[in-house]
Amino acid sequence: MNDKEDFSHQAVLIEELLAAPFVAATNANSKMAQEQAKFLMETCFDSENGAFSPKMISLTVKNAKESASDQTSELITFQLPLITIIPFNSLCVKDVSVKFDLEIISHVNTNTNDDENEKDKTVMRGSVASSNDASENNKTQRRNQSKMSVEINAGSIPLPVGLTTLLEFYTKNIQLKS
Amino acid sequence: MIDNLKIPCPTSECNSQIDYNVAALIGGASFGCQKCSAQIKIASSSISDLKTTYEKFLDLKNNLSKK
Ligand SMILES: [Zn+2]
Question: Which top-level group of life is the source organism from (chain B) (predicted)?
Fold first, then answer.
């Protein structure tokens, strides 16, 4: 078996190599969303006969002006859902940054049509490049291969719409009954 | 800091927001409304519930960031 044959079996389609970090990030987000939903239901809601009601906590409010002149002024206690107090917005993936070198191992033109007007279709295969400090004796490092640097940045992921709506609904209804 | 949050002022017709910090709220701190001077504080009966939930939340966050 020559060097070319030995190395080509490690090659993967470039599209698949580039997609891998995104797939991993998506899976991580999916896992995070599941754990977050589980946490929400278990810690912020009470379940009874299949119906969920939000766990409430009590806060007190006092008017500072009144309390300055009247030390005996009573505190008013109000209740609000626990879910509105915990900073759920922070449970999101902020950035995904992946940087690696690609070695282009094969470069094949798949257009077998003789029609000159038809665009060439090229299939590129490659693998994640070895680090620069790899042994110089390594045969693969001495190959005449192209290298490509890839950097992927994904933006922040917002909370699910359902949860945002729920939080908005609760927070907009925080008001003392007079 | 992720713990710095806002809550609508509960005073009727104030419509302002009160900045608060969860850890400080659990510690018994008061937070005031800039508009109507109302001050909110957690009721002593709820400190334990909020503390427990917040600690679980931090655990979850730490576990997820490790994965
Ligand atoms: Zn106010």
Answer: Bacteria
Domain carrying residue A142: 3-177
pLDDT tens track for B16-47: 889 999 999 999 999 999 998 889 999 999 99
Question: Collapsing DSSP states into helix, strand and coil, what is residue B6?
Answer: strand
Range of the domain at B61: 4-66
Token digits for B55? 């600690």
Q: Is this complex scored with an ipTM above 0.95?
A: no
Yes or no, beta carbons of A59 and B41 under 8 Å apart: yes
- The alpha-carbon gap from B55 to the nearest alpha carbon of chain A, in Å, equals 10
- Asked if A76 and B43 count as a contact pair (C-beta separation under 8 A), the reply is no
Considering only CB atoms, which chain A residues are within 8 Å of B32? 64
Closest by CA to A102, choosing from A176, A4, A177, A18, is: A18
Structurally, chain A folds into a number of domains equal to: 1
What is the pTM assigned to this prediction?
0.64
